[in-house]
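Holo model, coenzyme A. Inputs:
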Amino acid sequence: MKKALDGIRVLDMTHVQSGPSCTQLLAWLGADVIKVELPGRGDITREQLRDIPNVDSLYFTMLNGNKRSLTLNTKKPEGKEIFEALIKHCDVLVENFGPGVLDRQGFTWEKIQELNPRMIYASIKGFGPGKFEDAKAYEPIAQAMGGSMSTNGWEDGPPTVTGVQTGDSGTGIHTVASVLAALYQRDQHTGKGQRIVCTMQDSVLNLCRVKMRDQQRLAHGPLTEYPNKTFNGVVPRSGNASGGGQPGAALKCAPGGTNDYVYLIIQPQVWKALCEEMGRPELITDPKFATPAARLPILAEVWDIVESWTKLHTKYEILDRCNAIDVPCGPVLDMSELLVDESLRARGMVAAVEHPERGTYYTIGSPLNLSDSPVEYRPSPLLGEHCAEVLQEVMHYDAKKVEELRAAGVI
Ligand SMILES: CC(C)(COP(=O)(O)OP(=O)(O)OC[C@H]1O[C@@H](n2cnc3c(N)ncnc32)[C@H](O)[C@@H]1OP(=O)(O)O)[C@@H](O)C(=O)NCCC(=O)NCCS
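Output:
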């Protein structure tokens, strides 16, 4: 069966996390992704956070599956010639270098359009045009400047970075959406490529949309669903409060380990069933607890009562009991539990991959589930693994020429 992006070729000049997370999704959707890497070193993450000596790190392998690797020095004249041919050969160019890197090598948007008017050229940068456009960015910087850090953590603690990589992988997903829309526009309407710039600050801010909603609500009074008592004109950090229309909290479970918690939400319609399940039927009609409006100002007391029940059971028992009575809840699952989770394994969301040097490793699979474009997980490429193959295809070079280029440090 053909994949969704069969026939689409991606020239991948990405490194670290944001860009590679985008091009890996494109590869999983069926695009031919040619990752161009600096000869001798490649993507810096190949050697960062290594767990096995001299073997590509999990940092690299988990973000570069299903791609081909071509080493190419795009600063050398012969390297530029090959890169120009690749631009003509591909549909999409994705890069996430520091600002201006490809321009300095002579590959401006004007030049790229001249070489291939159908080329879609997507860049990931820290910031959009303005004061910060020349600044480099990493995940926590984007979380700091996109609104995430100021709204995450506890009221009496410092602004806090989250484990969710909204700046890196979040921007990768926004870039995938942009590339797919541009491919549609090119193929259905204009016949031309276009320029895309996705910024990490914008992506984090987009994912903090509800916090900007609350910032504007503050003009009309305090946010009653927040546990905070003071606001000082700004959306505060509110720990584990749900921040949505329904109150929620993380509650301790047995046997009391670091991640023995369940997140539980009290919808108005489940209060009766929850009270019965907890063995506290008197709370159903007690005017102090009977309605959402009555409970709102005393949520801390409500959560104490519910927690005195959750603490008697494991998080999985609470999940089963809550599911049986339609109370929304989720056990806090840690990475060791997710890695072996049967349903994630069965769906390929945690997928085993065979790597020629590393052996078996597990990658987080594709969350894009298309019934007619199933993903086959292939390992990340070794550095320069596909040099001969790609140069034969694009430049019609033979093995001798490839060796000459290798000796000259071009590939
Ligand atoms: C992540 C980041 C901070 C890393 O900065 P860095 O390590 O200084 O790397 P840069 O991307 O700025 O530059 C890489 C250099 O290697 C060179 N290089 C990389 N691949 C090359 C190749 N195949 N051939 C020749 N040169 C190459 C570049 O030309 C550049 O050299 P220059 O500065 O002399 O022009 C920066 O790339 C960045 O801000 N990217 C945009 C935001 C982003 O994606 N951040 C999150 C990463 S998860």
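The chain has a mean pLDDT of 96. Residues 239-252+261-331 form a domain with the formyl-coa transferase, domain 3 fold (CATH 3.30.1540.10).
Archived with the compound record.
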